[in-house]
Amino acid sequence: MTTDPSIVLDFNRVSKAFTDGPPIISDISLTVARGQFLSIVGPSGCGKSTLLRIAAGLEKPTEGICGVDNNSIGYVFQDPTLLPWRNARSNINLFAELQLIDKLVVKDRVDDVVELVGLREHQEKYPRQLSGGMRMRVSLARSLVLRPQLFLLDEPFSALDEINRQRLNDEILQIFVQEQFGVLFVTHSVAEAVYLSSEIIVMSAPPGEIKKRIKVPFAYPRDPDLRYDPLFASVALEVSQSLRETQI
Ligand SMILES: Nc1ncnc2c1ncn2[C@@H]1O[C@H](COP(=O)(O)OP(=O)(O)O)[C@@H](O)[C@H]1O
Ligand SMILES: [Mg+2]
Prior knowledge:
The protein has helices at 48-55, 88-98, 103-116, 132-144, 162-179, 190-196, 230-246; strands at residues 7-17, 23-33, 37-41, 63-68, 73-76, 150-154, 182-186, 199-203, 210-215. The protein is α/β, with parallel strands linked by helices. Helix 2 packs across helix 3, helix 2 packs parallel to helix 4 and helix 3 crosses helix 4 (132-144).
């Protein structure tokens, strides 16, 4: 791990192969600092989820080093995986309960987080009574309660319709600006990557390598109308062209 205290994830020349197979990702070096929103785009199968699983400590690199504080990670997947027999509030409590955080501390934090993600009126509802967007808010909230320094987000919004997706994009940005954690975000949507990120990494077709890094030249907080700015379109074009080249 580097000595810079703002760095919350540090991949140093990480490669990963599964037993006897070819490398899935190869020679990946990247860092995520607090206040940085780093997105990864790349063709299916190039190892994006594997990279996140290594960052989360669920897989070990075959080569290289992954430096991360495992006690301070929030991990959110495409599928919110809520427990159907617990209501929204009780699902939000879940990770804190598992980590044996003091009950009174948890109560305060859950009150805050429920407000932050706009679930106050829906706390008593069960997952089956919630829309897809609301279920994803519960999933985000469940990790936010742990006050992570690093958020790992694996295509969290891809099952949502466009309006809900944009709404959740704005909400996650608002929380990010407020909490200043670091984010490693995987998405298939170029527009979403540009709208959210401070930097975008384009990965090549398998074995996944870093093909290009593109800095996104917009300050936070971001205005929803940014999506219609000509400069936004030119950054999106650069990402798309780079992605297209990976598929040839
Ligand atoms: N536990 C595993 N054992 C063997 N192969 C795996 C395992 N996990 C992922 N893979 C393989 O790694 C490749 C990359 O998968 P993944 O990281 O999910 O890619 P992406 O998220 O970019 O679509 C796929 O070919 C997948 O089959
Ligand atoms: Mg994946």
